[in-house]
Amino acid sequence: MITPATTRHVKEQQTMSLKSEFALPKEGFVRVDTLAKVLGIAVVTVWRWSAKGTFPKPVKLSERVTAWRAEEVRSWMNAQGKAA
After folding, report:
1. For the chain, what is the domain count?
2. Which SUPFAM superfamilies does the UniProt record give (predicted)?
3. Single pTM value for the model
4. How far apart are CA 39 and CA 50, in angstroms?
């Protein structure tokens, strides 16, 4: 029998495996879709937090490519108490 608690537990397990699947590199740059998956948030939330100044600022790598420095994201995650 599937209960709401079972469903929630399964979703949490799927989220944890997804987060570990999309681990941050030790250095370099990370695109927004990977960040959102690692943090377990929506892409728009990454942009919102960056605009508000509560998340590291992105770097424009080219006209159409924007990314975040992995080191800055790791520092932010450590300050928030999140595993990198």
Report:
1. 1
2. Putative DNA-binding domain
3. 0.70
4. 14
Q: Which amino acid is at 4?
A: P
For residue 56, give the amino acid letter. P
Give the CATH number, domain containing residue 60: 1.10.1660
For 49-68, write each residue's pLDDT tens digit. Answer: 999 999 999 999 999 999 99
Task: Tell me the torsion sign for CA atoms 15, 21, 27, 33.
Answer: negative
For residues 68 and 56, is the Cβ–Cβ distance under 8 A? yes
Question: What is the extent of the structural domain holding 66?
Answer: 4-80
Amino acid, res. 70: A
**CB contact at 8 A, 39 and 31:** no
